[in-house]
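Quick one - inputs below.
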Amino acid sequence: MNSSLVVFLKEFRENLRDRRTVLNALITGPLIGPLIFVMLINVMISRQLSQAEGPLRLPVIGATNAPNLIAELRQQGLDPQPPVADPIAAVRNRDVAAVLRIPPAFGESWHTGEPAQVEIYYDSSRRETQQVVNRLKEMVQRYSRLTGAMRLVARGLSSTLASPVLVDERDQSTPQSRAGALFSILPYFFVLTVFIGGMYLAIDLTAGERERQSLEPLFVNPVAPWRILLGKVAAICVFSACSLLICIVAFTVAGRFIPTEKLGMALGLGPVFAVEVLVLMLPLVLLIAALETLVAAFSKSFREAQTYLSLLMLIPILPSIMLSLFPVKTASWMYAVPLLSQQVAITELLLGGSVTAAQIGTCLVCGFAVAALMLAVTARVYGSERLAISV
Amino acid sequence: MIQVENLHKAFGEVRAVDGVSFAARDGEITGLLGPNGAGKTTTLRMLYTLMRPDSGRVLVDGIDSGIDPLAVRKRLGVLPDARGLYKHLTARENIDYFARLQGVPAGVAAHRRDTLIKVLEMRDFVDRRAEGFSQGQRVKTAIARALIHDPKNVILDEPTNGLDVMATRRMRQFMRDLRAEGRCVLFSSHIMQEVAQLCDRIVVIAKGRVVADEPPEALRTQTGESNLEEAFVKIIGSGEGLAA
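Output:
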């Protein structure tokens, strides 16, 4: 029997008996991502909905100074709350999102035809209150425009006189593209799953074996180090690919529980999406397995390897962050860069765009080329005489 | 038959092995004796091709380890200083794994394994997982997997390390059995009594060099000491690191 296969079968069997590896690769790794993701998205969506459509509950100071205004705002969805003593403190202490104050002079200015002032207290550094403040402003302005138009009409003038320019907004976003911002983090979860699914095993098979002093006896057998490496990397790949598969299936199932239709969004989660993601991710499975083994081979102990790999885990998030901070147009060269290509292609697929066969091909060829290079470097380290020696 | 010719190995400034030559013959037990840090383990690691010598060469049954290390490994049964087992596998599975890596046909391996299990008295724990094995059970398993391919040459790095009195006695008898089968047995030790009792030939290493290479009686006559312990102290130059 081929000695790489012997190593693979032994590692596979031995680690199936290790509850920690199995839990890590088949449950914690693949399921935590979808779970967090669905919960997060649900919270975000329901909050956006309640802020955009629910009644606006805000404290109003001096409501009796402008009963007509308040009646109109009530019609638009404001639910005036009892006044607070100190509006500035209330906003600063985050007790309320905003406070509407109507000064005592409001009635007098109104009747003399002067601009009557209302005050909105808010804190623009609290971004989450932005929507509330905008809604309130829009309500007041609407009342103002309406009253202004009526005053013009009462004087026999056309109401359009006061608004010479009209902006007509034509939003070109599609339901999918609106979902995009929310879901650009999704590819990272897939990468993370592959990383976590293989991590424990990769450390254990090199740094762990050395620490348990079984690497030296293993290397005394008449088998070239690179063959041993191949068997071990194959075992890591199988475990992390299982992780990935479970994660993708979990996402396609969990995707049904995201109330995207409430936001007028649609996601391309389905069996076809699942298969395409799996194929796109395959080069990363090999690349990450080789990388993790390389790090484990350099580390002196299990713990050291764990520390390095935890730091390394942050690297795959870079494309996600970059693309959400600097949304650039997808260019074809991006399909040639591992990690970035998966990020771009999976986001594209998710949002219902199309990825051509040539682009998928580029992604696979370049991905596997880099993975092979990584494997060659790891094989070199595996061949060095320091590798097996534990003390 | 293992021949070692003028081996050198340095780690940075430290010359761990500095010109070691000796031969271990078939049907003999050769003991590699020396204080801690004398270069015994490094020498053995070069013999079983885990390390490459800076200069010098090793011949196993006439095969140069620098030219064909895999062929050399096939002819060696090695119990290294590191003797970790796979704790999720049983003793039997640990042995079978090495049989497959050595390329021993399954039928032959099964027969050989059963013989080793009998000789090493492993029957009552062979199907238990290695997690929680005693030191003695671990060494027995490590020896069984090292000898599964029936090697002509056997290298044992401090084989009695950590064993109790009874296990040590059995180990010594096992080494005599290997000699009786006509194998070349080379083992390292820092325990003189053990070396004196077992060896047909003693190679004494100190500070990376061979300071004596004689049968035990010759060592006594050469140094003019009737007591072996005194003879060793005289050869090495100090009593440091030697255990009685």
